[in-house]
């Protein structure tokens, strides 16, 4: 950014780094800089919405994500994060169908489907969340799903034994998505577990 302060993508990725370090206020400031430089970027606008939700501004986040969808109704990530924020804001009737819409647009990518498992678990649909975990597990056996996302789905569905089995497999495969254990707010209570600490150490994050 020192070389090119007006490079929106640099501000965007720096905001993601700050977000992963749980520096949510700083992440929002940085993504807003990116948005000012590239106001029509769909992914930047989507991340503005997500970062607003992380600092507790759920209504602003929902408004921002609706505006992003107005720019391009086929942009799946905006539907996914809108649905997630709506569920977290206490409106599952709107949020779950929005997440399902995003998953369909994104052709059931493993990260997307795992987010749907999170939403189902939040609204008490544990059986549906476990079905998604099983779907991801079958995909992982065919190298079509991220093992870390299998673990994540089992984690949010309340099956720690199966979750840790897949997190350990993700570490063995050096799966990028295993970093979810480090940054995801919904897995905060997991980070004090010695098994998680060992996994984080294996990734060089402890």
Short description:
This protein folds into two domains: 1-107, Serine Threonine Protein Phosphatase 5, Tetratricopeptide repeat, CATH 1.25.40.10; 109-206, no CATH class. Helices cover 71% and strands 0% of the residues.
Q: What is the CATH class name of the largest domain? A: Mainly Alpha
Describe the global form: globular
- Termini Cα gap: 27 Å
Number of distinct helices: 12
Question: Roughly how many Å is the radius of gyration?
Answer: 17 Å
Indicate the proportion of strand residues.
under 5%
Mean pLDDT over all positions: 96
Supply the CATH superfamily name of the largest domain. Answer: Tetratricopeptide repeat domain
Q: Examine the coordinates and then state which fold CATH places here, giving the name of the CATH topology of the largest domain.
A: Serine Threonine Protein Phosphatase 5, Tetratricopeptide repeat
**CATH architecture descriptor of the largest domain:** Alpha Horseshoe
């Amino acid at each position: 950014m020192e070389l090119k302060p007006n490079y929106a993508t640099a501000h965007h990725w720096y905001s993601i780094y700050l977000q992963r370090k749980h520096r949510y206020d700083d992440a929002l400031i940085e993504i807003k800089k990116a948005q000012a430089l590239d106001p029509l970027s769909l992914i930047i606008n989507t991340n503005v919405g997500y970062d607003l939700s992380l600092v507790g501004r759920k209504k602003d986040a929902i408004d921002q994500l609706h505006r992003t969808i107005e720019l391009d109704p086929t942009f799946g990530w905006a539907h996914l994060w809108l649905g997630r924020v709506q569920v977290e804001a206490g409106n599952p009737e709107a949020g779950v169908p929005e997440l399902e819409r995003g998953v369909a647009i994104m052709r059931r990518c493993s990260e997307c489907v795992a987010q749907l498992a999170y939403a189902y678990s939040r609204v008490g649909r544990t059986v549906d969340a476990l079905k998604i975990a099983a779907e991801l597990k079958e995909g992982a056996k065919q190298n079509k799903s991220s093992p870390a996302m299998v673990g994540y789905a089992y984690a949010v569905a309340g099956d720690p034994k199966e979750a840790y089995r897949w997190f350990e497999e993700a570490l063995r495969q050096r799966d990028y998505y295993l970093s979810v254990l480090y940054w995801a707010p919904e897995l905060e209570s997991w980070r004090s577990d010695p098994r998680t600490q060992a996994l984080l150490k294996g990734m060089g994050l402890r």
